[in-house]
Amino acid sequence: MKKNINYISIAVIAGLLAGYLIFGNSGTEQNAVKDLSDMSDTHDHSGESENQMWTCSMHPQIMQPEPGDCPICGMDLIPAESGADGLAMNEIKMTENAMALANIQTTIVGNGSMSEDDGMISLSGKIDTNEENNAVQASYFDGRIERLNVNYEGQKVNLGQTLATIYAPNLVAAQQELLTTASLKESQPELYKAVRNKLKNWKLSDNQIDAIESSGNVRDNFPVYATVSGTVSEVMAREGDYVKQGQPILKVSNLNSVWAEFDAYENQISDLKVGQKIKVVTNAYANKEFDATVSFIDPILNNATRTVTVRATLKNTDDLFKPGMFVTGKLKGEMMMTNEVITVPASAVMWTGERSLVYIKTNPNEPVFEMREVTIGNRNGENYAVTEGLQNGDEIVTNGTFTVDAAAQLQGKNSMMNQEKKEDAMMPMSEMNMEFSENFQKQFKKALKPYLQMKDALVASDANQVSAFAKATSTALKSADIKSLGSMEQSHIKKSIEMLDAIAENDILENQRDHFVILNENMVPIAMSVNGTDAMLYVQKCPMANNNKGAVWLSAEKDIRNPYYGDAMLTCGSVIEEIK
């Protein structure tokens, strides 16, 4: 009995131990799973998707927080590199290694006290000939240049020097008249005097005329003499050339005085006045300053460079200044200067001709940069005064600026070369209210058929067919009566015909498509102003055509068939207007 009890006790203990081992470990595993589950529940994955940005492979400047289509070309967006996470739209981030290799340095800007040299304007320019001292040496009679004694630029010319010898048939005939009338000068003095005056008008001197008369010989060749002294700045004829009376042979400049012409930016114009004293320095004489006075400020701004020409006249009796020589001018600005001003090193500023740009370090702890447009004032030595765009404490790139700009350009961000600029305001096509006669509208509707065939040929990339249909469209428009139409209407029609003729005469597809852009800028507004077409027309637009400026065309089908790219991007575009 005791033995059975012992067996039972051992079995119970063994059962409890096995249960502990089985269910205890299971509980531990369950707890572990539960802990992992809790960790999974509490761990936030949303940051991964929230920070993911999407971009276009062809337009990397596009950054969107969600997948979709590119607003420019319609292509599917792709995930942007994770390195771009956390950056603003036009911020770029560089690695420390790239910063070191490019030797990129930054400086914190702040107010600088004005020195006695502040307020000085520094202008760059070059020496040019004084147009007031230029003279053109011309031929006084028709003929052929037998000999050109002065035939290269820079050659010295003295007053009375023989410049050229010309064979002049008219002078040969006039000499014959002189010899004939010389025997009649007693009986017909007026006729004799008229012949002599004719020769004088051809710049023959009395001595020359008397020599011809006394010798009785007719000369074939006559010299042309210099009427001024100076330096030849341009040779305008060559030996053997036939020249007309009054045709230029040489351009001679008197370099005893020259012009120093400088470029002044828009923001410097208010500081400049005629009569200001200006000091001129040139690299040829680096340690010498030449005093001059501002004699002219161009009233017209150069649209390409956004500058005006400032001119000063320099005496050049010692022949120190050579036309084309670079010079620097310094003068005191007229504008009152404040006591405090933000100045930056000249190396920090990039100038495009229209804008002045710097790169700001937007994160003090990381190499993150963003381009900013600034307005610069006067230059003082190696520093610029900045009037707008910077604040005290801004950290800007002062060395390696162009390297940072290149990195921004490669990443598709705003940079010196690809900053998005506002296009000039242009009247929308739908607002071009044009009126056409019924006869013209009928003729225009006839021109639409070959136009649409030309568009289809562009879609098919068939240059020969494009030329043929362009010619047919042009013929249809040329037969229309446009004399009674307004100036805007006539301008659009004439430009359309001009582009159609250009397409018809060109067999290069790329050139045809370039002309097609301008054609549609004129054809589409006409179609939108015509009172009803025979069938529904769609105005369609490709945002990528015309160097990403966008271009339109007319289509009889709603489905997009892109004539600017053909099979390369057949469906790129959208319907922007319907013409019923």
What does this structure look like?
The chain is α+β, with helices and mostly antiparallel strands and 580 residues long. Helices cover 31% and strands 28% of the residues. Strands 4, 6, 21, 22, 23, 24 and 25 form a 7-stranded antiparallel β-sheet that branches. The chain has a 6-stranded antiparallel barrel with strand order 7-16-19-18-17-20. Strand 24 (368-380) and strand 25 form a beta hairpin. It is flat. The relative contact order is 0.10. Residues 25-50, 335-339 and 421-427 have low confidence and may be disordered.
Task: Summarize the structure in short.
The chain is α+β, with helices and mostly antiparallel strands and 580 residues long. Among the domains are: 132-253, OB fold (Dihydrolipoamide Acetyltransferase, E2P) (Beta Barrel); 257-332, Efflux pump adaptor protein, beta barrel domain (Elongation Factor Tu (Ef-tu), domain 3); 429-579, no CATH class.
